[in-house]
Predict the 3D structure of the following.
Amino acid sequence: MPEEQFVHFEDDGSIPNNPRLPVVIYPSAFKENPEEIEAVFNRNDWTNSWTDGVFDYHHYHSNTHEVLGVRSGSAKIQLGGEQGKPFDVQTGDVVVLPAGTGHKLLESTEDFQVVGAYPDGLKPNKKLGEQDERPEVLEDILDAPLPKYDPVHGEDGPLLTNWS
């Protein structure tokens, strides 16, 4: 399995991103068993899960972190807002977005589906990068509780080491 990647995005004036925590990408984490993504997330206390696509506009959640596991298909997703970077994801990949991280679907195959979930089953808000969201969202991002478990690896995952 390829090694995880850690990517940090700066506040672009619209999408705040997270000043402390990087995005964590686990390439091919579930390549052999994508049907198990939701069960593993839930077992690791990333719950309130759902299966669908990704919105095709920039948005973020200021009150909680989010994990996205690619259950089928492939896509190009822009992370970090307009000034961010596009990433290609495919079946089995997992992307963990710290609170405040912008994400947007750029293109996808017809069968593209992700499983999303949140630590401790928190209910996410949806923010669009409007100026009237600040400064409240900046405080929310810093106050978002750290997860107890890595969504993929549980108690011993690299997310916990890098997000401590």
